[in-house]
Amino acid sequence: MASQTLQSVPAEPSPARHELSPEDAARRDAEGQAYFDKVMAEDSRIEPRDWMPPAYRKTLLRQISQHAHSEIIGMQPEANWISRAPSLKRKAILMAKVQDEAGHGLYLYSAAETLGQPRDQMMQDLMDGKAKYSSIFNYPARTWADMGAIGWMVDGAAIANQVPLCRASFGPYGRAMVRVCKEESFHQRQGFEILLELSHGTPEQKQMAQEAVNRWYAPALMMFGPPDDDSPNSKQSMAWNIKRFSNDELRNRFVGMMMEQVKVLELTLPDKDIRFNEETKKWEHGPLDWDEFHEVLAGRGPCNAQRLERRREAHQNGAWVREAAAAYAEKQAMKQAEKESAA
Amino acid sequence: MSTSPEAAAETAGHGDISVGVKGSGNSGEATASATRITPGNALRPEDIALAVSRGSAKPSEDAAEFALRLGDDALILAQRLGHWISRAPELEEDVALGNIALDQLGHARSFLSYAGGLDGRSEDDLAYFRREHEFRSAALFEQPNGDFAVTIARQFVVSYYQFELYRRLTSSTDSTLAGIAAKAVKEVDYHRDHSAQWVLRLALGTDESRQRMIQAFKVIWPFVDELFRDDELTGRLSEAGAAPQPSSLRDDFDRLTGEILAEAELEVPNVQPSPGGGRRGLHSEHLGYLLAEMQVLAREYPGASW
Lengths: 343, 306
Hints:
The complex is a heterodimer.
Chain A: H1 22-42, H2 54-79, H3 88-113, H4 119-127, H5 145-162, H6 171-199, H7 203-222, H8 234-239, H9 247-265, E1 275-277, E2 282-284, H10 290-300, H11 304-317, H12 319-342
Antiparallel strand pairs in A: 1-2
Chain B: H1 5-10, H2 12-15, H3 45-54, H4 61-82, H5 91-116, H6 123-128, H7 139-142, H8 148-169, H9 175-204, H10 207-220, H11 232-239, H12 250-263, H13 287-300
Helix pairs in contact in B: 3-5, 4-5, 4-11, 5-9, 8-9, 8-10, 8-12, 9-10
């Protein structure tokens, strides 16, 4: 995901910097930095109350909230097929999967909140177009086979990206990722199973599966982010033990995994240049259209406007419900306080 | 959120929000369960389909028709509720409404698998290849989602009705109906809690939410009566000890919903009951659209498996 700078910056830890004397502020920073450096050197974990460099906080907040937004926006292409799922069992599985994604959004927003920004603000940034989410969800889910391709390829790429994040240096993020990854691996298997069933079904079903794989292949590979020589933030993230492997490393590893699995599916990947390089012992793939990637990222993909509008609409339609819940909670709290003061 | 996508689908209810995965690090979640129900020994739709195909569970004609009614109620509601996923007022409600939809879908699959045992049709044959007049759901279930208050009003009525029905069905002389009900009643108990909490929040929250809640009950209440009407089928089932007469659930329904409505400072709406007719295949204008969407893909590829 590309960096973006418009997102709201979180509050500073308490006591705020301006409440401290210059000497105390400097001492706190020096002690904090020393501890932080030690944690990085030992490859251990930073927790929310620990001192952290402002840039580390900002990077994590951006990454975790973008990840949360991706889960929430990512519900839409699949929710699109819940009502039309072709069997009741598939309908149930798909509902459970999209529900899981809402759950992932919740853990991730919670993890991001520990960095000092409320969920409401993150949601607002998303709806205002200030925060990004994974570009893959700006592509349409055209057929039922896309439910298979999204599960197998998009969730597969997400897992390849996210398993190393379970060891991220920021505790709440790493712990959230453990649970997310477990669920994602079931999602990938269910996607694989959908494609397997289709590829062994009627010729029309097999064609539907192949076309979905063709459509999602390149966007899935681009989920790992730009090539290493065009990824300015990666180096710092690796130094901070947030990112463990480079974009290209993860992408190549993923291509290798798919090459094995696509054989079982009896389908093909739409890339004649995939090969295992015996010298580097790495998988290689054909050229990707990075211009398209940047177009979609810039908001000019097939579904960008639709996805954001749907999120805004749900949020606006729910405003009166959230207000009611807050008002009710406040009234209950007042009643409770009255009871206690009377007692 | 479960140990497999299938388990998520089939245990449906509260099983699917339990952690159920080993070794989730030091978060203490590895052994935690979000609910009391373990998915491990729950009765799954597949178990019923298997028992039916082996001949160890075979419904009488009356039991099959009754299972069709309950299965259709749950299926149509699940289809309605599924629409909320990704559109709810809060993420927590995406999860909650999705969960209730999954529970209902699980119950539908069980009841339909059993109903199909009469003539060898599968749950999918029944869901995807029947026409509108062959569905046996009551009018309440197909009512449009409306705003969140309408969805909550509908869910409130459904949950209290289903709870009373399933509670009694657990002692049915038909052991399959009793088994399905035993699992379902625990899940529907949570649905009661969820909708009752929302009725209170909306009715006592803001002026706007109170007006919307009052309006929603006016929209939904005409469809309450149909749920409690006896007919020849329920008469025969009741005599056989296989199912309660719907009218026998009414007192408990009125009392328990009345307690919540009183706490919410709401009156039972003064509206005329709808004639209904869904149990005989006479549906509102809404059902055709719902079925068209639900069935389109399956009917595009008849005979295909998915």
